[in-house]
Amino acid sequence: MRWLLIDAGNSALKWEVFTGATVQWPAPRGEGPPVTRWQGTLPIDSPDLGAELARACSAASALTGTPVPTAVFGCAVTSDDRVRAIESAIRAVNAPLVRWLTAGTRFEHDGIELHNAYARPEQLGSDRWHALIGARGRFPRGPLAVVSAGTATTIDGLAPDGRFLGGVIAPGGDLMRRALAQGTARLPLGDGEYVPHPDNTADAIHTGVLDAQIALIERRVRRIREAVGGAVQVVLAGGRAAQLFPLLQAQSGIGKLAMEGDIVLRGLWHHARAITTEAITRPPA
Question: Would the pLDDT of 208 be above 70?
Answer without folding.
Answer: yes
